[in-house]
Amino acid sequence: MNNKVESLESLISLLPIIQAAVPADMSIAVCDLTKFIAYYPGENISLGINVGHELNPDEPLMTAMLENKYFRGDVPAEFYGFEFTGTAIPVHNEQGVVIGGVAVQIRRHSELIELAKQIVIALSQANERIVKAVNGSNVIADLNRQLLVLSQEGSESVEKTDQVVSIIKNVADQSNLLGLNASIEAAHAGDKGRGFGIVASEIRKLSQETINSTKDIHQTLQALKEVTLQIGDAISQVASISKEQAVSTEQISEFIQEIQEMTGQLNDFARKL
């Protein structure tokens, strides 16, 4: 370890240049064997060291000088209100004798680390919600497909029912025609056909009512058919939108995972600062 200088004063004269040249916010303290003889605080880091302040026996700088060793350690925020990394190194004269020491403090980017942690937590929670949303969208899409199938089956059932109504109308028309012919024959029969004529009249009346009912049923079925088709179109559109939303949500989830990975890298980088 070659930390030789002509004098501590010559070292002190270089510290402002070193502090300005290093691309980091740091403070530098210089001491002789008993006290601090120079201190240069940083822009955002100051330990409040005063020149002439006696060294504490437990001071890392004192330990570095006594043991002639380089020390480095992280100081937690509860001591000075912020985290920083401190180094302590002994300084020798040209003969190799320890004549003092230098301590450098670089503020750790704890705020950046904490922010990265919060971002990771927030993204993780957001990703969990999005995964649930994706699952929900897929379920909705499946239900919409089932509803679309049911709607199509309903439309087909309406078509079949309309055919049945058409058959009933044909039967009613034939019954009405038969009732008319029966009334004519009953009239030809005179008094003997009067009872048969009454029956024929009732048949014609019933068939006419059936014809009128089938018209109403047909109109109702047509309206139901139109509504069913509209419902089918609406369900089809909803199914399409749900599918698009599910795809978009999955893409957002992938994007958030990428951000999580980058945030993790940012966190690792911040810890190395």
From TrEMBL:
PROSITE patterns per the UniProt record, alphabetical: CHEMOTAXIS_TRANSDUC_2 (PS50111)
Keyword tags: Transducer
Entry annotated with the keyword Ligase: no
Presence of the UniProt keyword Cytoplasm in the record: no
Record's signal peptide: none
Domain Methyl-accepting transducer: from-to ranges: 155-273
Record-level GO cellular component terms: membrane
BP GO annotations: chemotaxis; signal transduction
GO molecular function term, any single one: transmembrane signaling receptor activity
PANTHER family named in the record: LYSOZYME-LIKE PROTEIN-RELATED (PTHR32089:SF112), METHYL-ACCEPTING CHEMOTAXIS PROTEIN MCPB (PTHR32089)
Family: Belongs to the methyl-accepting chemotaxis (MCP) protein family.
Descriptive protein name: Chemotaxis protein
